Amino acid sequence: MNLSLRTGPAERVAVVHIGGEIDIACADGMRDHLMAALRAAEDALVVDFAGVEFMDCSGLRALVAARARAEFLRKRLYLASVPERVQRIIRLGGLDGAFAYCNEAAVPDHVLS
């Protein structure tokens, strides 16, 4: 297990930068971190996957939980800089249409309007 989580300053939008490997040993910790970031953000959470080397289905389960919490809180959840290896897990889970994406860890303009 090798996972690093860092959250940028949260006002209207929080950005969580994830690095390393997301597997069963750390997925619950990632989920808890995402939930805390959602609570702190006023409008949206951007999850930056640029540093992710590996993710299994337990990481996908954590993302689904964060998506459900975002909907409950009426906030938006975006995935950014998602490497192909993570996109593959999302597709295999049948969830490729379930998430909104942005090309980089910059906040989409329409989030702030």
Structure description:
With 113 residues, this protein is of the alpha/beta class. It has a single domain, classed as Transcription Regulator spoIIAA (2-Layer Sandwich), CATH 3.30.750.24. It has helices spanning 27-40, 57-72, 84-92, and strands spanning 3-7, 13-22, 44-55, 76-80, 100-102. It has a five-stranded mixed beta sheet with strand order 1-2-3-4-5. Helix 1 runs parallel beside helix 2. The radius of gyration is 13 Å and the shape is globular. The N and C termini lie far apart (39 Å). The model has no long low-confidence stretch (mean pLDDT 87). It comes from Actinomadura macrotermitis. Residues 3-113 form the STAS domain.
Task: Identify the notable features of this structure and list them briefly.
Anti-sigma factor antagonist; 31% strand; Transcription Regulator spoIIAA; STAS_dom; 5-stranded mixed sheet; 113 residues
In terms of topology, how is this protein built?
Elements: E1 3-7, E2 13-22, H1 27-40, E3 44-55, H2 57-72, E4 76-80, H3 84-92, E5 100-102
Parallel strand pairs: 2-3, 3-4, 4-5
Antiparallel strand pairs: 1-2
First-residue to last-residue Cα separation = 39 Å
Number of strands: 5
Unreliable segments (pLDDT under 50, ≥5 consecutive)?
Answer: none
Strand order of the largest sheet: 1-2-3-4-5
Strand-and-helix sequence, N→C?
EEHEHEHE
Task: Briefly say what this structure is.
GO terms for molecular function: anti-sigma factor antagonist activity. The protein is α/β, with parallel strands linked by helices.
